[in-house]
Amino acid sequence: MAEAYILINCEIGSEEDVITALKNIDSIKEVHGTFGAYDILAKIESPQVEDLRETITWKIRKIDKIRSTLTLMGIEGQS
Which residues form the Transcription regulator AsnC/Lrp ligand binding domain (predicted)? Predict the structure, then answer.
């Protein structure tokens, strides 16, 4: 199982809308609003790394009002 954590910056005041959109993506397992340098933290899981890449590129990064993302990939076997 491939997993990643995605740190997300969005437009001011759009956090709840972005969180709602993220929760509608099947491979996203957790979503949290955060304080600090990033606005939202999301955990994503898929059977294959390529599936993660597709979801991040074509679903998450296309959500309206997301300004930027930073993806942290989990290392298989180090959990």
Answer: 6-73
